[in-house]
């Protein structure tokens, strides 16, 4: 079983990355093969909306997204992690989501991949500094549609408010435990 972690924060050793690493540790502890992709280290152009993917489900823009498409399709489960920037996910993470239009076309327009009978699940991990009531609403909706586009069921999240300083999350051991348990649950749920 493969679990792919997508780290959408541009800052390394960020609160988001610390939580993602804990979730991946939990999944690995239950026997999963885990891999983490650091989005800020990739060269990913924004979607050009030229609709070339309608021909065969492949994006004609040649960059690191070609490599990431394969990782997204191979993964049994995905943990998507991004801090909140202006009530949404980071621009780096959003570029990945937008470029998955090609995978949406494959699945929902061309019917490619529908025969994949794996039950693929996804989790969303996010940290935000402000305490707004609807801080995560836009990001959760974006991640739900992203997961749907790539054939993954949104299966839970860990959303933490009031965290801003680098590595501040380490002062919240329950959040670290929650992330670990979420990773464990991801690979042990049978349905």
> Helix- and strand-based class?
alpha/beta
Q: CATH superfamily, please?
A: Flavodoxin domain
H and E order: EHEHHEHHEHEH
Round the Cα radius of gyration to an integer and report it.
Answer: 16 Å
Overall, the morphology is: globular
**Which CATH class?**
Alpha Beta
Lateral strand order in the biggest sheet: 2-1-3-4-5
CATH topology, which one?
Rossmann fold
Number of strands: 5
Characterize the biggest β-sheet: 5 strands, parallel
- Domains, number: 1
Name the CATH architecture.
3-Layer(aba) Sandwich
Descriptive report:
By secondary structure, the chain is of the alpha/beta class. It has seven helices and five strands, in the order E-H-E-H-H-E-H-H-E-H-E-H. The protein has a single domain, classed as Flavodoxin domain (Rossmann fold, 3-Layer(aba) Sandwich), CATH 3.40.50.360. Strands 2-1-3-4-5 form a five-stranded parallel β-sheet, with helices on both faces. Helix 1 links the parallel strand 1 and strand 2. Helix 1 packs across helix 7. The two termini are about 15 Å apart. The mean pLDDT is about 95.
Short recap of the structure:
By secondary structure, the chain is α/β, with parallel strands linked by helices. Helices cover 40% and strands 18% of the residues.
What is the secondary structure topology, with strand pairs?
Layout: E1 2-7, H1 15-29, E2 33-38, H2 53-56, H3 65-74, E3 77-81, H4 91-99, H5 101-109, E4 121-128, H6 137-149, E5 153-161, H7 173-188
Parallel strand pairs: 1-2, 1-3, 3-4, 4-5
Helix pairs in contact: 1-7
């Amino acid at each position: 079983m493969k679990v792919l972690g997508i780290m959408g924060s541009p800052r390394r050793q960020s609160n988001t990355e610390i939580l993602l690493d804990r979730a991946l540790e939990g999944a690995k502890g239950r026997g999963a093969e885990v891999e983490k992709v650091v989005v800020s280290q990739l060269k990913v152009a924004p979607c050009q909306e030229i609709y070339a993917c309608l021909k065969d489900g492949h994006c004609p823009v040649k960059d690191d997204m070609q490599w990431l498409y394969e990782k997204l399709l191979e993964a049994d489960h995905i943990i998507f992690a991004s801090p909140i920037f202006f009530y949404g996910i980071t621009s780096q993470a959003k570029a990945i989501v937008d470029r998955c239009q090609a995978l949406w076309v494959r699945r929902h327009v061309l019917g490619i991949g529908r025969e994949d009978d794996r039950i693929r699940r996804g989790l969303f991990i996010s940290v935000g500094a402000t305490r707004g009531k609807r801080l995560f609403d836009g990001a959760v909706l974006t991640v739900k549609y992203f997961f749907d586009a790539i054939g993954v069921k949104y299966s839970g999240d860990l959303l933490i408010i009031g965290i801003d300083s680098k590595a501040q999350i380490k002062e919240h051991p329950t959040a670290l435990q929650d992330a670990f348990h979420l990773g464990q649950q991801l690979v042990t749920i049978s349905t």
